[in-house]
Each structure stands twice: as structure tokens, then as C-alpha cells.
Structure prediction request, 1452 residues.
Amino acid sequence: MDIRADIEALNAILSPKSVAVIGASTTPGKVGHDIFANILKGGFTGILYPVNPGARAVLSVRAYPRIQEVPDPVDLAIVILPPQPALQAVQDAVARGVKGVVIVSAGFREVGPEGRAIEDRIVALCREAGVRVIGPNCLGVINPTPAVRLNASFSARMPKAGNISFISQSGALCTAVLDFAADRNFGFSKFISTGNKADVDELDLLLYLHQDPDTEVILLYLEELRRGPEFIRAVREITSGDFRPKPVLAIKSGRTAAGARAAASHTGSLSGTEGVYNAIFQQSGIIRVESIDELFDFATAFAYKNESELGKLRRKVPTGNRVAIVTNAGGPGIVATDMTMFSGLELAQFKEETVETLASHLPSTANLKNPVDVIGDATIDRYENALGAVIRDENVDGALVILTPQSMTNVLGTAEAIARIARRSFKPILCCFMGVIDVSAGVKYLQDRGIPVYKFPENAAKAFGALYRYSRWLNRQFLAEYKLSFDRERAAKIIADCLARGKTRLGELDGLGILEAYGFPVLPTKLSRSAEEAAAVAAEIGFPVVMKIVSEQILHKSDAGGVIVGVQTAQEARQAFETILARGRAYREDAVIEGVLVQKMASAGTEVILGLSRYPVFGPLLMFGLGGIFVEVFQDVTFRLAPIGRNEARRMVRQIRGYKLLEGFRGRPRGDIEAVEKLLVSLSHLAIDHPEIAELDINPLLVHPEGRGATAADCRMILKSQNAAA
Amino acid sequence: MDIRADIEALNAILSPKSVAVIGASTTPGKVGHDIFANILKGGFTGILYPVNPGARAVLSVRAYPRIQEVPDPVDLAIVILPPQPALQAVQDAVARGVKGVVIVSAGFREVGPEGRAIEDRIVALCREAGVRVIGPNCLGVINPTPAVRLNASFSARMPKAGNISFISQSGALCTAVLDFAADRNFGFSKFISTGNKADVDELDLLLYLHQDPDTEVILLYLEELRRGPEFIRAVREITSGDFRPKPVLAIKSGRTAAGARAAASHTGSLSGTEGVYNAIFQQSGIIRVESIDELFDFATAFAYKNESELGKLRRKVPTGNRVAIVTNAGGPGIVATDMTMFSGLELAQFKEETVETLASHLPSTANLKNPVDVIGDATIDRYENALGAVIRDENVDGALVILTPQSMTNVLGTAEAIARIARRSFKPILCCFMGVIDVSAGVKYLQDRGIPVYKFPENAAKAFGALYRYSRWLNRQFLAEYKLSFDRERAAKIIADCLARGKTRLGELDGLGILEAYGFPVLPTKLSRSAEEAAAVAAEIGFPVVMKIVSEQILHKSDAGGVIVGVQTAQEARQAFETILARGRAYREDAVIEGVLVQKMASAGTEVILGLSRYPVFGPLLMFGLGGIFVEVFQDVTFRLAPIGRNEARRMVRQIRGYKLLEGFRGRPRGDIEAVEKLLVSLSHLAIDHPEIAELDINPLLVHPEGRGATAADCRMILKSQNAAA
Prediction:
């Protein structure tokens, strides 16, 4: 379906000219009654037709026994009927020429195969007719825009019109959010409960809202996605493309639920669905929030546009992270300073002329440095002059204004002064008016003008931090891609050979071969099957060597004492061979020990881990993190869905806390970071080219000093086959 | 001053029978008018006397020119006058026999030396008379208890009476908190703004509120403390002693402000004031919260007591961390499950009979496992039966009940059912009613009965987590102390010798000597001054050895390439000596190189860091964390103020994330954890016995496998002397 047709179909649902409510009821308390009543009382600007074979009218509106009898064209059919009659109703509606359908009723896919079959038939017949369906099992849709005013929902409360749209997979949450929004004087553009997502899903709606001129910020409550790489590509365009980029904020629940996934690799056990969703959010530029409060806090800041004076409206996103704080109380100023730091921001250093300007306007007891303390008895003038001075400073990218109501404080007047300054600047100004009732006039004044205002400084500072993160995303650099080439055939051959032999758990011998084909520097490695052979092989490779057990049953070799490092002589090699064999047998009686690997000792480097696992729907998930034994203790890892290029690899490497170790630190040389980035891109190609690789840990990859590359010192690979699970 | 007299004096301030407002004014808008009006309109149950030499009456109440003229005894004088007249007023008040003074006016210590002098004189004269002073520069005090009803504050709003007391160092925050509390239907027992804390400080008030029968939970907003070890000792008794333990929740701001402290040691640079306050909170059992929202969320849970049926009131603190969730919506149930995990809780596993009971009461589509989903159309019965069943289960320590208003939901009825069950159980039941207005009747019903109710499941789960943390604190084990002995004289001698030589930065030679005297196992170490000597010393000690540069100018030896490990032969030792010297000179031209240390190579172990720094007022601060190069990357460290004993040392060791490494992990043996605990206690003694040691890093301390102790492999020590700063 092309995007134009899609927009038209969704327009028919979200901004219809005429609506038929099939299953409209005359009995208060019934869903079919309440939804009809809500649309009617909400002041819908189009025409409303109740459809009910047993009623002459519903709430004084003439009813029709079937949609066929409705004398005019109908854009949207809202269906509130049990599954079987719903199917009939949708058939009738499609025949009647509706452009969109919303099915509110439950009892479909979520209750079992029968419901699912009906749901599938409904979707099939609508798709054929080019009609889109929202639901079933949803709360409905709301469009409070004055030109439409459609409240097709359970909720008696029509929210204020605004420029924020909300898509929710949970109906229960919708109700709570509407209540909460009313409490915070929050306006919506579109409000959509997706329910079972039988047809229309988040991505359809995101694409629609991207085009919607009334939507500036998109909020998403998510339980699961059914599209991965496609979702990333499309949403990346929405959040940062050339055409009207719009911020998308998401809450994703179900974080720990799938945490217990049993997996044979570190990557597998660390990733979980949490890893997948974090990857999707990062790669698509979605800003993840942790709570409903935070969702509202951030949305307010993102919806904030200039009230003009400077010409065209523009979103107030800071171009840097240097924040000025103006406050009339010390304590909250300290809190704001703290949170500023925690949110990735900096306190701006004022220019000399700014300090002079502040000094000329403020009393001698005021603090002229950032945070600027205009003192408890501050009047409107003092706020206006101080804020005006700091916002003009070239070293300031935005401001937080904190007001605590004190006896001299003119709350409304200060709000007006802030708005005057905000109108003249593109820099974001976020306010914190501390108090609920005493400050209400000022808060309302600011809210009505879209100027973000919070109850506590920590919320304002965190919201500013989110604005800055979005600005960094919008303005990210694009480095030219690496030119890399791989020996795809060689890797494919090793994989095919292993699978032919029924071997699905690959150790270093085969695994490093595959990695080598994709440009990973590996260490000279040979298998020995006797103590004598070990000594000979070691001599050939050159001392010192590392010796490691080879057994399909022993994946975590060091757990079994199966690794001996620093073997210096032939005699030591013989002895190490015997020791490793004895330990392996003691560790697991049934282990089939193929022999002992003799490997050149790697030169020193920082240990990192590169990994790969796969998820249904989402495909290959890449992991990067600090390696060695620290991977499990600190779980200092980050994820991306393949394919990734150089730029995404760069962000991955820079994202972990342990990046500091790679940067060079306390006499340690800077690591070869570019080599790691290249290898991440190589890993992405490997993952895409060879779907047989189900899981892979390269742990450790030793990152040598700058210019000296990196070495894959160990790896563990699981190939996909019938018995790969375990 | 003994505690009885103190309580009486503070009683006179917080529950006075008669109050004189000195500086009461007839001019609305003036502080002296507003505070008088607030007390009068607040319905104070005692007698109120305005004192004003120029007015016959204030708000129709007969005024007195001076407090001496007041015909009856006066308990409390509230002073609203500039510093100089305030001093006179306090003199008069004390002469008149008042028992307590609150000075609201500003202009004292916070504006300069003159103000400070007056403040000091006021305190001195009050102390002499046994009169206690709150303020100056504060918002006042409030006691909404029906027997008192004193609103001696700027705030026109008298909060509801309740069992939570609030102590704030920031007046600005007080106003905001009062507004916020009104919004959340929150009741207070005492509300105190401490201002400059010239006399009465938090600790005085904490001790008072501990005794106060109307206070169940104490909230603290803190900017700085002026007492350290004393505070810890006293508050530990309040939060977990035998006499009526009460939870103390604190917000501390100013977290990043002092982060930039320049320090010569890791411990010094990592600790900052943040380290000190975290230590104080942990050692005294104060629960730190991150925001005002969280303060209210947690306070509600802690104030929650049984409404009887089970006899005496008891705080509802869970005895374990196994939570049952009952919800009528899937999404919020998932969120609650997530947050439960994040908050250190577990989902309870129900017993078979519980599942049977649930099955008999719930429809077949309900989820009988935890979280229990009673389905969207749940009636009162279904909630009551499900909650009743899970709360009776021996495997359940408490419950979260989630309600989202849907068409069938009887919100008030469900609240009543929850209250019925809560009355019969000591297990905490926390509720989440999602929505602001639709659920208001139920929310109010629960609030009025003290049953915690939240807007979102994440808040409820976090509050439950805080209750559990407090339960763990209340029920912590006390292991018998170690019997340790130290060679205090030897350490004192080394320190005195160094100071005599003007040496304040001690390397390993002297430092390890001091540590050895306190029971730290150290490595055989000798200084060599020539390549030949190095070879000889190394042979004497036995190969392999480590060689390290010795120079007072080079504190971070590895930064300078001044450490060579694994020296195996005399020839290598000679060569290493020359290399180290060359590198040291290249690193810092002016470095005076004393020689090269030759040290026995330590046997393998997990690297941890033990450290010591000192703060004015608070004294020695001990640090423990993961050592080596990871200390700065992950800052996985924890702090305590000395002295500590075995139990505190135990908690320190178990608190860091890297504890997993010490526990044994992936084939690594379990480390000698008890040895580390003993050494932490030894370090505490060292810190107390030798105040000359200003800073100390033992990094790394190598923790060997269980039973094999730990070795101090390197140390850095700064002694206190005139030029120790730098």
C-alpha cells in the first residue's frame, strides 16, 4: 500500500467527516452507548449515525438498522459488537464504502484461535478493499483538534487540543494518561489505542503522524513490536530525516520479563528483549523514557516552539549543552545544578560583559555566577534583566528559570517577563515554578504559551537533557563508510562443513577460521592430540603459547580449568597438555575431548567483547562491550541490530563506560579504536551473510595500541540446526 | 544539655500553650503581619500575644508594646525583627521567661560578619538560660496536630494533621512542599524550617521527633550537616534502635558541587562530599531519596500502619521481598513486575493451594500466576478474593494492587475491599489506582485510611522496595567483632620519622611499613640505588620480582612507565633499573629519583582498593572498591566514616558490584573475603590512631583465594603537614 493511500485511509479514521457507530446502544453503561455518547457530547464536527437494528434513535439521534440504510457516505465505521456480528458489520461497512474501521470490542485474537480466525478474516477483507482497521480490543481514537473534535473512546473526557500525539498499545494506560493529562493541562493532537494491532500498528501511525501538520511530538507506549529493521529505517527518517523531523518518545515495559532467556553465549544471555529494544530505540533515534511522569515532562519540552517575533516557528532544541540557571532560592538552584550535570549538561561560563550586565541590575548580595541567584525578594524586573542577560550570552545554549513563591514574588508578572524573553530567542527556556496553588496563575500563563514549566528543578533539568540528546541525534556526523572486503566463500565453506558433520558448537579452530575470512586478525592456532604433538606444535608456533581444551561439551573453558597461559618450553607444553586433559575429565565426565589447542600468546591489549545473537522478527543483534571476566560483572555492553555501518559502530564503541580504557588512561596507550569499529562493521556483514550463525562471542578481542590493530583471542559460535537449542 | 530538658524546650517551640509574636505588624503583606495572621487564622489552641510598640491591636487582638507587659507566662517567642532589635527582643523574651524562640527574619550569619556576631550573641544568651532557638532566616514552624494547630509560618495554608514530620534546611522548598502536600492529601505532624541552624539543628530535631508520639516517619531536606560521627551514632538508634525505631528519609542536594575537589589520591578524588554523605546515610540507616516525588511516595508507604483488627498498631514493613501483584490490566502489571525486579524485590511463587483458591474464584481467562490478572471486567468480589488469597500465602510478603478504571470497575467498592483485607494482615498492601479523577473516590478512601495509593505502578513498586530495604536494615545481623592487635608504636615511629625529614608523600617503602604494623600482609620490598644493587636485591628476594620507580614527584608510577613486572633474572633486573630511570627522567625532568624498588612478585589475586581520606567535621572516610585501573572507570566504590567494625566492613565488601568477582566466578576461586573485612577494620583503627595520615590508597590490595589472605601490593600515603596540600 503506498503512503498516500495510507494517509488518506488513516485520515478517514482520525479526521472523518461522517461516522457510523455500529452497535450504538440505548442502554447507559454499555460500551456501545458510552462511546456514542462521548462522540456526540464531544462536539464532533461531522455527522454521526447510530446503527442499531432494534432502536429508532440513540440519544435522540435517528438510528439505522444497518449501515446500508445510512443515506449519506460514511467515512469511518466504529464497530462495537462481538466477533461474529462484528465480521458481518465490517463486511456491510466495506460494501457501503467506508474508508476506515475501528473495532473497539474484545474477544478476538487475545482469547484464542476462533477469535483469531475472525480477526484475520476481517483484516483480509478490509485489505482487499483498501480499508484500514484499528483494533480490535482497543480503547478507540480521539482527535481533539477544533476542526474535528472526535472522541470515539471509552473516556468521557475529551482532552485539550494540542500538538502532541499519543499511540498506546495498552487501553488501560490510555485512560490513566487522559486523566493525568487533564491534571497537567496537556493538549493532544491525536490519541490512538492500537489494541491487537490486527492491521494498523505503531509504524503505520508513526508514518501518518510524521506527515500530520498538527503533530509536533509523538509519544509511544509499547509492549512489543512486530517489525524490526523496517521500523528502524522508517523511524530514523521520522526523527532525523530531512522532511520535518519529529521527536518520538517511548515507554517500553516488559523489561525484565524475558531476562531469563537461557543462552549458550554471553551475548545471548545479556541481550534479552531489553537489548533488542534498546538497539531499536538507539538506531531509530527514539528517546526512551522511564515513567509516565517523565513522558509528560519531556513531551512538554519537545512540544515547545517559538511564539514568533523571530519569524517562522521553530522547535526549541539547544545547539549545545551549556545551561544558565536563574533562581530566587539557593537550595533549588543547587538541585538544578546537580541534575544538570547528571543529565549530560554543563553549567555555562558567562562572558565578562554578561557578568557586568548582571552586576548593574542585581543587588550586591546576588550571585552573578551561574547559577545566578536573584535573591528571594526578586521582583519582575530582576528576573527579566537577569534572564535577558544570560540568554544573550554566546556561551549559553539555554536557561532554567526557577521561581519559589515568596512574599515579594509576583508570579504572574514573572511568567509574563519570561514569555517576553522567550519570544525573542531561539534558545530553550525551561521553567520551574515550585508550588502547586500559589504559583498557579503563572504556571497557567506559561502553559498556555507552550513554555515548559515544571514543579521541581530536577524535572526541568532532565527535560533539558533530553532536548540536548535529541539535538545531538539531529546533528550527528556521518563519516564516510569503510571499504571492506570479505572472503565470504571461505566462511560459508567452513560453516557448511561443520553442519555436515553435525557440529553446531564451534570452538576456536573453526570459529577463528570464519572470523579470519571476515578480516579479523587471529592468532596462529593448532590442535594437538597428544602431549608430544603439543610440544612440537608449540615449538613450531613459537613460545610463549596458550593452551586450551577443545570439547563440544565444555563451552566455558576457563570454568573447567581448561586454559593454561604463558607456556614457555616444550616440557611445559607436555605437562600442560596432561593437566588440561585431567581437569577436563574431572569437570565433566562425559566430555568428549578432541584435544588441546596450542595458540600463539597474544600481545597485550584491552579486552573487549563483540557478539551476535538473533531474534525472531528482529534478526541479528550485535553486541559490543568491555570483555574478559568483566562482561558479566559490569554488563558494560551495548547493542545494535544489523546491518550497521561505520557511524553506528562508532557510536557503539563510544557508548560503553569502559571506552575510557580504550581512549588511553593512566599511562596505558590509546587503543586502536578504528580497528574495533571496522571489525564491528565486519561482524555486521558476517551476521547478514551467514544466517546459520545463531550466536557468537568474540571474547576477548584484544585491542592493541593505536595503529596496531586488534586480535580475536577467543571465540565461541553456535550454528543453527535442529539440535542447536539446549 | 540533657535530652529531657531538650525535649521540654522543643516542646515549648512546637507545642506551645502561649505564643508572643514580637514584630507582629498591622500592615498586610509584611512578614510580621502575615505570620501573625497565619497563626490566628490557623486556629491555634493556645493564646496569642502580638508584641508591637506602635499598635494597640493587631487583627483585633490586643497588642503589647514589649513582651514584658504580657500579663501571662509565654512559652514561645516568635521574632520578626532586623538583627539588632531582634537581639534586644530575645533578651527581653528570655528575661520574661520564655522557653523557646523562633527567629524568622534574615540578615544574620548569611549576610556577613556583623550579622554573624549578633546571631552568636543571641545563641549564647539563650544557651545560658536553657532556651532553644530555631532559625534565624527560616520559614517558621507548623504543628497541625488538633491539640495544637500552630501555623507559625509564611504559608497561609495549614497542612492536614498526620504522622509525618518534615525538617527542611531550605525555606523555599518548604513552601513548595506544603503546596505539593495539599495536592496529595498529605498530613504532617511537625513541619520545621531550620534556617541558619544557629542553635537547633537537624540532629536535635531528629532526637525530639524520635520521642514524639505523633511522628511515625521523619523527612529531611538537607544541604549540609555540621556533625558527623555523633550524627551517625544518634540516628542509627533512631532508625533501628530498641526504642520505637522510626524511618528517616532524606533528600540531599549539592551532589556535584564539590565533585571537583583536587586530591592526590584516588580515594580523595572519588570521595567528595557525596562520598561523605552516602557514608553517613548508610551508616545511620537513613533512606536517601532522589526527588520530592519519591519523598512523598516513600513517606506514604512508611507512614502506613495497621488499622487494627489485629490488635496493636504496627508499621507495615515486609519481612521478605516476595511480592504478589494483582491487576485488572496486563500492561501495568508488566510495568509493576519490571520495577519490582529493579527495586530488589522478587515475584512471589504461589503455593499450590493459593492457585487452587484463585482458580475457584476467577474466570478461566484470568492469569493465576503472579502477576494475577483479574481481567478488565473485574468486580469487587474478584479483587477481594484474589487479594485475600495471595496475602494469605506464606510465600508472599506483601502485595501490589493495580486498578485501571474500566466500564465495569467499582473503584470505591474495590478500595473498600482492599481496606478490609489490609486490616486483617500485617503484610503491606500498596495500591496503584491509575487515573486522577475517575478513581478519586477510591483514592481518597484509601488515603483516609493511610493505605498507600499511587498513580503509577512504578511508584508503588519503588516504595515497596524502600520498605524492604528498611526491613533489611532493621533486621540486620550483628557478627561478633574481630579480635585484632596492632603495633601502634611502630607505625607512629615511621610517621614521626617521615615528618621529621619533611617527607609527606610516602611511597611503598615507608607506607607498607606502616601498613604492616597494622596487620596488612606486604611483599618483601627493598630499595636499590644502582643497576647492580637491583640485581643483587632481586636475587636475595627471589625471582620473579616487580621493579618500581621511587620519587616523591611521581605519585602515579605507571603513568610514567615506572613499573616493570615479571623480572626473571639478574640481567633483566639490571636492564629494568636503567629503563625505569630513563623513563622517569623523560616523564618529569625535575623528578628526584631516589632509586628503584625491588619487590617480590605477588601471587595472583583480585585487585581491590582500600582508601582513606579526611574531611573537616566528619573525620576519616574509608573507601572500598574494585581496584587496579578499574577504580576510575567504573568507580565501583563505597564509603564509610571511621570507626567501623566487622559488620560495617562486611556490608561495605558486599555492596560493590565487583563483589561478584570476590565470590568466585567462572572458574575463579572465591576470594578471601574475611581477610578483606579484617583489613578494613584494621584500616579504620589506623585512621583513628594516626590522624597524621591525611590520605591513603592501598591499590591494589590483592585478594587471594579463600584462606590465603590478601596482600597490599602498592600504597600511596599523604601525611598532614604545612605543605601537604598541593
